Write a sequence for this structure.
């Protein structure tokens, strides 16, 4: 049975409004501007000491000793580590790499990426918390800030107070030291591409090139801005690693964790209160874990993407537990499974060596072995053969056929290279130019080779031949294919 149709509603036309005045608030209410974005709150990290703080400073010293010290080391007559872009040569101690060795750079990048995956799967953001340049330079800049403007409370009071001579002097000293560190960092960075002794001389004589000036100040300003002002904003908003790190975490990944089962319910209390007889957990709600965090998060709210795994909250919480005479480890490095199942250290370590970690480890070491063996077995010179573009082939007096080739030899060592060139593939084919060639250390040189074939030794057309280049100072022999053309 068909249901009865509903009567159609009458359509009442509405004339468009011509009133374009803004909507007024209700009587008695005041207009307020509502922002869609939260205002940035400056973070004043509190200084902290402890195991993880010491480890972080050890990494600061180690990484900066490498960065600032390597350009000043010498290897023979040159800088030990130098990326000479103008000459297209990269010097890394004994190694001399050319653009043709780009495969080694690709291998290095793959090793770094997989190592990052491995470390993250094992212990979270270890790179971010201890070795990332942003973390390292932020730690250095905060150390300068604490020694010029005081610790957290003094710094906050000084920022809120009116300007005085003392305040201006302290902030000026901080800015001067920040600029000095930033400038020296930019100078050192450019020193990896321009010999640093030459660069220092050019600065002393005010003869620095325009590109060198640009990169010294660009890298110095980036260090000054990122480590001095942007700090945690780089980690939270600019670094992509914080966003995709969760894809590499699992329930057996070591992360900075708060033991809620032991700490809750939190609350302040006297040292004399017996924890066992009270209704409170071990957390005294002192908020020191928030005050020491460089990104300003509360670890008690669980794992957050802003956490860089530096362990500062674990250090300060252990200090509080010592003062309260409670066991340490309310905030510690642990895993989700360990916190849920109350595992001990032995069970945590056992679950570290899981299939995912072993796979990453195997792949990383396999690639390291391949790259290392390839570098050790690398020939001391490289050869490239090209035909002379001016003439394909020509016939000389007496019916002799001549082809001209251009031979490029790259010496990848820092000793003079002597090679002997010979050719085979056709009977009677010989090199009529000099067969013994010399290339200077770490240089690339082109040679013109004229090959002649007696008459009647080959039919008209193209014939495959081989150049055999013999290193006279070792057993290296390289062969290159080419084509000898006999004209019709």
């Amino acid at each position: 049975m068909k249901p009865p149709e509903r009567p159609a509603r009458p359509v009442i036309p509405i004339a468009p409004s011509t009133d374009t005045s803004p909507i007024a608030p209700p009587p008695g209410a005041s207009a307020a501007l509502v922002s869609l974005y939260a205002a940035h709150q400056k973070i004043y990290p509190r200084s902290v000491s402890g195991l993880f703080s010491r480890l972080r400073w050890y990494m600061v010293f180690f990484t900066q000793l490498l960065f600032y010290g390597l350009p000043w080391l010498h290897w023979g007559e040159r800088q030990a580590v130098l990326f000479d872009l103008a000459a297209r040569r990269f010097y890394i101690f004994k190694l001399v790499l050319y653009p043709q060795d780009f495969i080694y750079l690709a291998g290095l990048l793959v090793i770094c990426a997989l190592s990052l995956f491995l470390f993250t799967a094992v212990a979270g953001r270890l790179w971010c918390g201890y070795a990332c340049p942003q973390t390292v330079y932020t730690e250095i800049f905060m150390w300068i800030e604490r020694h010029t403007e005081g610790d957290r409370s003094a710094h906050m009071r000084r920022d809120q107070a009116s300007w005085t001579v003392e305040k201006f002097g302290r902030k000026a000293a901080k800015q001067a030291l920040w600029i000095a560190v930033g400038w020296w960092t930019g100078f050192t960075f450019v020193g990896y591409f321009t010999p640093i002794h030459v660069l220092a001389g050019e600065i002393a004589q005010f003869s620095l090139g325009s590109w060198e000036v640009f990169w010294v100040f660009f890298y110095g300003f980036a260090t000054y801005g990122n480590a001095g002002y942007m700090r945690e904003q780089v980690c939270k908003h600019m670094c992509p690693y914080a966003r995709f790190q969760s894809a590499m975490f699992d329930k057996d990944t070591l992360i900075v964790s708060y033991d809620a089962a032991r700490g809750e319910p939190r609350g302040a209390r006297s040292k004399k209160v017996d924890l066992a007889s009270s209704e409170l957990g071990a957390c005294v709600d002192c908020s020191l874990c928030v005050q020491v965090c460089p990104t300003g998060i509360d670890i008690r709210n669980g794992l957050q993407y802003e956490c860089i795994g530096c362990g500062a909250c674990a250090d300060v919480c252990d200090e509080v537990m010592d003062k309260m005479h409670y066991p340490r480890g309310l905030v510690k490095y642990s895993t989700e499974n360990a916190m849920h199942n109350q595992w001990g250290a032995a069970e945590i370590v056992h679950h570290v060596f899981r299939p995912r970690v072993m796979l990453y480890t195997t792949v990383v070491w396999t690639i390291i072995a391949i790259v290392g063996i390839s570098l050790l077995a690398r020939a001391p010179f490289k050869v490239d053969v090209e035909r002379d573009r001016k003439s394909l082939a020509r016939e000389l007096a007496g019916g002799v056929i001549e082809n001209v080739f251009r031979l490029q030899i790259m010496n990848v060592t820092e000793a003079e290279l002597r090679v002997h060139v010979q050719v085979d593939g056709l009977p009677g084919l010989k090199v009529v130019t000099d067969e013994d060639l010399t290339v200077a250390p770490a240089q690339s040189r082109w040679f013109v080779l004229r090959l002649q074939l007696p008459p009647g030794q080959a039919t008209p057309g193209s014939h495959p031949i081989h150049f055999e280049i013999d290193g006279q100072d070792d057993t290296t022999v390289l062969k290159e294919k080419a084509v000898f053309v006999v004209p019709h």
User: Anything to note?
Assistant: The mean pLDDT is 86. The two ends are 97 Å apart (CA to CA). The CA atoms of residues 254 and 310 lie 12 Å apart.
